[in-house]
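MODEL INPUT / OUTPUT PAIR
PAIR INDEX: 1
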Amino acid sequence: MARKVAYLMSRFPKISEIFILYEMLALKRLGLQIEVFPLIREHEAVSHPEAQAIVERMHWHPPYSRAVFAAQLYWIRRSPLAYLRAWGRAIRGNISVPAFLLRALLIVPQAALYARRMQALDIDHMHAHWATHPTLAAYVIHLLTDIPYSFTAHAHDIYAERPMLETKLRHAAFAVTISEYNRQFLQRLYGSVAADKTVVIHCGIDPDVFQSRAPAGHHDRLTLLCVGRLEAQKGHPYLIDACAKLKRTGMRFCCQLVGEGKDRHRIEARIEQLGLEADIILLGQQPRLRVHELLDQTDIVILPSVTTPNGRQEGIPVALMEALAMGKPCISTAISGIPELIEDGRTGLLVPERNAQALADAVQRLHDAPAWGQQLALAGREKVLR
């Protein structure tokens, strides 16, 4: 009989977290039965041909509903000490970060319902993506049911606020980090607890999906592409400033920004201030197939990631992995786990963060030496496919 694995994540299905879907599909192909328990139900369309089988195994209830209320009564009667322990630890562990405490007050009741569902389904193991709220849910379910859990830590979930992270590590069967940088970061924080529990597994992509078909250098002007949420850690202002510098040199280019986010108005204002409305196009969030088309048609992919003042930074951006898999020359910054993917001068170009001039210079180098850029791109594709 197939082993049953429950996946917990903040939102599902979510376009920007397609790597979780790829992971679940890979496990399904290995013969595991996957059940999905998101904390928030998204209504985004998923275009992957195998995705519907995963979507159909989704279990979701809002944090406060009749079913959730009934689950509280069930655990109060069946395991009152475990139920009270779950509440006590969730409150004490998150009380120092008010936003996390408020989320915990929603997550614990929801997790109590999911615990009942998982027992009914005879779940063998839980895996949570992101070390924050989904892993709190897995921890609560573990306290109520003894079902073992693991989790994947990505980026902001360990770099910024991390309430209860050591507790989550101690009780987990194991923890996955998406980069060696992350693993070493956790070991510096938690010593042997992290050393004994963490393994590195890079996010995966589907190599059959990401294959370039368009010939390189076929545009009448250089096409640049940046795929990422319009948020501070993505570093869009430095790309915009780099574009202004490139325009002053006389270079003809079009820079397309794919993604949506809270910094959109600020980015639009900066583009207008620099007179780049005809050179930089904001495309908003796009479906996966459209992103593939844009990658196929672009000359250079740029992700000018930065570390924010509150510690937020990238893990290893899946957008860069997809671009390399498509055989595109990539430029990014030498922070966090990015150098594990892009080796400067071998599989792409790395520049210091928050340095618009260095970004502009890197674009100019690739523009002036397209054959060299293709060598970098081919080496990058080989690395990703390994």
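PAIR INDEX: 2
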Amino acid sequence: MEEIEKKYPVEKDKALSKKTKKFLARFNALELTAANLSVTDARKAFADLQASSEVDYSGIEESELNIDSGGYKIKLNIIKPENSKGSLPFFVFIHGGGWILGDYPSHRRLVRDLVVRSGTAGIFINYSLSPEAKYPRALDEIAATLDWVSKNADDYGLDATRIALVGNSAGANMAIASAIRGIENKGTEIKLQILMWPVTSYTTDWKSYEKYGRDRFLTAQKMKWMFDNYTSDEQALGSIYISPVLADRKLLKKLPPTLIQVAEADILRDQGEKFGRKLDQAGVEVTTIRYNGMIHDFGLLNPLAKLAQAKSQIAHASAELHKYLWT
């Protein structure tokens, strides 16, 4: 790791935009490493980071709903465009945070932007976090939610025939796993999946891991810490539900149209792009976009929300939602 730091220092990294470097200088000065943070402290640090910037929450109507499904009690947030009428298509948002961090407040601005730009409603799942709830608990709760919304969406002004899955990072990982499970179990039909900087493999033998494994917000050390908290089952780590890049074409070809968004200076970049290529080879309608100069979670982080690249990321995702759910 010391060699990585010497070979690819942040201040000399031409893959980072000027504004991203400024953010990293402030963030890295906080020394929020996996080695010196408890899970509780990490959750608070992430919440504080997201709350540190003023962002726009206008143009939406929000409600909370507690459901019982599949033996689980799950809280949902429903987000609609302001003054919307009729039965709306919707996306189910599965949040990131390495399976251990994150909640609706920390992802609210991102979800709001997608709702306002696309005119589509959103359902945010407050799944149980690790390490309190280990794999596959969160996936089971997501499956229970999808089953519930497919049967009850109409009661809330939502159209269950027009559903997308959207997830960021570990949430994107679970979106893929949920789509695969749905195929295997003949579950809810998904029209589109949007995968923002997804985790598609538990392995570290990627060039982007080597180049960007330190000091770029998501580090190799943090990623290992997150996997360790999610599960200690080696067999599970190598399964298609955690490492979907290992899935074969016969299964992948059944996945819905997909948008994959990756950041240039992100350790997960290469595995996200690899998954996109595998989907293409399997015959799936897939678009993979790399945002140069950006780091992991650039589209989620409120301190970066005003960057041109972050705005473009929202515009691209919203356009896909409109394309596949409205036309």
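PAIR 2 NOTE: The beta strands are 60-69, 72-81, 88-94, 121-126, 158-168, 192-196, 258-265, 286-295.
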